[in-house]
Amino acid sequence: MKKGTSFGAPCLLENVLAESVISAVPSIEMDEKSSSNSRDCLGLPDSPGVPKAATLETLTAPYNDISAVESLFQSGKGVLAAIILEPFVGNSFFIPPKPDFLEAIRRLTKENDALLIFDEVMTGFRLSYGGAQEYFGITPGLTTLGKIIGGGLPVGAYGGRTDIMEMGAPAGPMYQAGTLSGNPLAMTAGIHTLKRLKEPGTYEYLDKITGELVRGILDAGKKTGHGICGGHICGMFGFFFTEGPVHNFDDAKKSDTAKFARFHRGVLEEDVYLAPSQFDAGFTSLAHSLEDIEKTIAAAEKVLSRI
Fold this sequence. Notes:
Keywords: Pyridoxal phosphate. This protein has about 300 residues and is α/β, with parallel strands linked by helices.
C-alpha cells in the first residue's frame, strides 16, 4: 500500500502472480490481468479479434465532424438507436470538441429519438465535479464512469435516466452483475476521493498546475525547435509533436510518434513518468505540487534540447 494501489502499467507483483497461475493451471502459458470499465467502452469495430457480426450494426464517424454524423442519421433514418462518444477525447491524447459540436450531437439525438451516451471514463470528475457534461452543459441519457469513482481502485459504473436504468436487473429484463461490482474497498476509496474533490478550490488548483505544466512543455518544445501543440482543461492535458491543430484521430496520427517515444524515454530517465503512448491523455492530481510541475518542465526542456 505504501508504494501505491495502481500504476496504470505493469508491476513486479503481476509477474510473481502470473508465475504462480501458470505453474498451477495446465492450459495457461501466458496470462493478462484486467479489471477496468474503460475496456467496456473502448475499441474499434475493425479491431483484430472482433467478429464482423458483433459490430455489423455499429457505424462510426470522425470526432468533431458533425456533417458525417448527420449523414449517418440521414442514411439510417429511424433505425439508429444511440450515439456513444467521449465528450472530450482522451483516447487520442487530448482532443477538445469544436464549438457547438456537442450541442449539435445533442440536437441530432433528440430530433431522431436516439439515446446519447457519454463515455466519461476519463473526463468524469476531472474536467469538473460533474464531469464533461457539467463543464459543457450537455446532459446525455447515459454515462459511463471509470476507476476515478473508486479512488483509482478497480471499479466502473454506468448510470442515467430512471426509465433506462430500470431496464436492468432486478427491476427489468436486462441482466447485469459482477462479483466485485460495488466492492467495499473501492467504494470506501471512492467516497473519500469524491469528498476531497468537492472541497473548495480543488478544481482551481488542478487547473492552475495543469496549465503551468502544459504551457511549460509547449514553450520548451517551441524554444528547442520542435513542432508541438496541445492544451488542457482542469486536470486533463495532452500534447502532440505536430504543428496542429488536432481535431480528430486522423489529425492526431500526424504526430511524430517516434519522437514522442524518444521524449518519453528521456523524461523517464529524469524520473518523470508520463503515459507511454502518444495517444494516452495525461492527468494531474492534488498530490502534485508546484515543485513537481517545475521539475517536470525542466526535465522536458532538457530532453527536448537533445532529441
